[in-house]
# Entry
Amino acid sequence: MTKWPALLAGVVITSSPAFAETIEITFGNFTGEWLNAVTSDGGDSTSTSGTETDPVLSWGRPATSEGQSSYTFESEAAFTTLFDSSAETSDIFNLGTFTHSNNPIYSPTLVSVDLKLTTTVQVGDLEAAPVEFLFSFSHDETPNSASPCKYDDSTQPGVNDNGCADSITLTSSLFTQTFTIGNTDYTIAIEGFKVGETTVDSFLTKEKADNEAIIIAKVTSYEAIITGGGESGTPTDVPEPEHTAIAGLLFSLYGGRRWSARKRRMPR
# Structure
């Protein structure tokens, strides 16, 4: 079932010496697609199913009647978040519900895969424009009978009860698309997986179970992503953006803020 986050109030101008602005950013309905899967045999031994709002990726040779292991992503419906121009970030929001059906399988196992989410972005009262965001999953399939298990259960108690847990990490891809407020490129940055009331960077998934977590995220600058959270220094192999504007408009709010969406080269 698709979950509906609460819609937030209208544009608010907060009074401060710097005249900080709080701006609504509205995302339309999301659709999803699994791309660029890599499996342990060096190829792509996966299959896809489901719908564009609930895409499913499956892999592995089943070791039991439960079938293959799989990822499912349930997209959020349209929602609005508030962007603080002085902090250059938004409130944290739910991006969607992720489920790893962790069934006993034989190789080939999943190594990595990308999730492309397509939606629209509207800044303030400006016209919405289409945009695509790309997120990269890294999957560590561990031997079920290892002793000790590779990952302890201190952050997720009981996760190794049915055999050793797998580990999943998720990041915003360098090849994602951006939109611009002022002179800064912004995109969606992953904050982590919310498991119950706990937020974790790496999601440990229990064997012989459907493991569900909420993927939480926020709007932040693209530079913060490519420099590892805003630290100084320039990483290697950062893709050069294609400066193809989807929309370029003036946002007349305390001197005006320019907004556009720019598409970065997507991997083939």
Observations:
- Residues 12-264 form one domain.
- Residues 118 and 132 are 4 Å apart (CA to CA).
- Helices lie at 222-226.
- The chain has one domain: 12-264.
